[in-house]
Design goal:
Helices cover 35% and strands 24% of the residues. It is an alpha/beta fold and 156 residues long. The chain has one domain (2-154): 3-Layer(aba) Sandwich (Rossmann fold). A 6-stranded parallel beta sheet has the order 5-4-3-6-7-8, with helices on both faces. A two-stranded antiparallel sheet has the order 1-2. Bound molecules: magnesium ion.
Length: 156
């Protein structure tokens, strides 16, 4: 659990971190060691879910050393599936991080929605719906680990 003060919206008790896999957590299918270490750190405070349609069938292998739970989606219509997932666990207790078009609904629905541009770019709908847009996945994780950062970014 992490207490977050979100300017203009009040205090949130965050319990879940929901991450898109491809383009957000993984670049060209690879996940950096630094990102993995930060997620391990965050996993001490938050339950981490990684969402993917897993078209290659190797997602479990790729997150083997992660303290996170893999959630498989059906291929096609992923945006509403992701939205439904965070509604089920509790969107108001969730930070959602994504880059693609299929992340735009969950990023909007979450207590804090973060769009990651990364190396693969981000869909404009996801950027438009995000509370914060960052360059790299590592910056998104630092925003959560260092709450003062997002407070400064979102201050009105
Ligand atoms: Mg993606």
């Amino acid at each position: 659990m992490v207490r977050m003060e979100i300017p203009g919206r009040g205090a949130y008790t965050i319990e879940y971190l929901v991450l898109d896999m491809n383009g957000t957590l993984a670049t060209d299918g690879r996940i950096s060691g630094k990102v993995r270490d930060k997620i391990s750190l965050l996993a001490k405070h938050l339950k981490v879910y990684i969402l993917t349609a897993d078209t290659m069938g190797d997602a479990q292998e790729r997150i083997e050393r992660f303290n996170a739970e893999l959630v498989r989606l059906k291929a096609g219509d992923e945006a509403p599936q992701k939205e439904r997932f965070i509604r089920e666990i509790g969107a108001e207790k969730t930070i959602a991080v994504g880059n693609g078009y299929n992340d735009h609904l969950m990023v909007k629905e979450a207590a804090l929605g973060i769009a990651v541009i990364g190396r693969e770019g981000a869909a404009r709908e996801t950027i438009a719906n995000a509370d914060v847009v960052v360059n790299e996945m590592i910056d998104a994780l630092d925003l959560i680990l260092k709450p003062l950062r997002h407070r400064a970014t979102l201050r009105k």
